[in-house]
Amino acid sequence: MHPKEAVQENLKAAMKAGDTRRRETLRLMTAAFKQVEVDQRKDLTEDDATAILMSEAKKRRESIEEMTRAGRSDLAEQEQYELSVIEEFLPRQLSDDELRRVVREAIAETGASSPKDIGALMRVVMPRVQGQADGKRVNAIVRELLG
Known about the structure:
By secondary structure, the protein is mainly α. The protein contains 7 helices and no strands. The longest helix has 24 residues, at about 45-70. The chain is globular and about 55 Å long.
């Protein structure tokens, strides 16, 4: 099912159930889809919708870090809830072991051997794990294996 359709179906269910917190989070996701559709004047493909969800999830992760550092656990908890709802619509995320395997394959293909090769390696790995791993996690594993 298209992620946009899945979000809309869940929004209807949340409205019927009276779950205002979930409803508001799903409305934020719907608004993000609509914003891209209006700005780019096109219908979203599944890849476009997944990319939007990944972007929204990344925003939430960054907000959680900032709010935790600022001692605002109440706001961080709300962002964590939103992140958990967004992640329901993302493809299954790769485990660290699966991610390491993908990075090792890319290292073998590109011949990367030092931290200078991180950029080239990231350009090979990121398309392979699109929607299945956050760039920050990928970068950390690339640095670990090349370091």
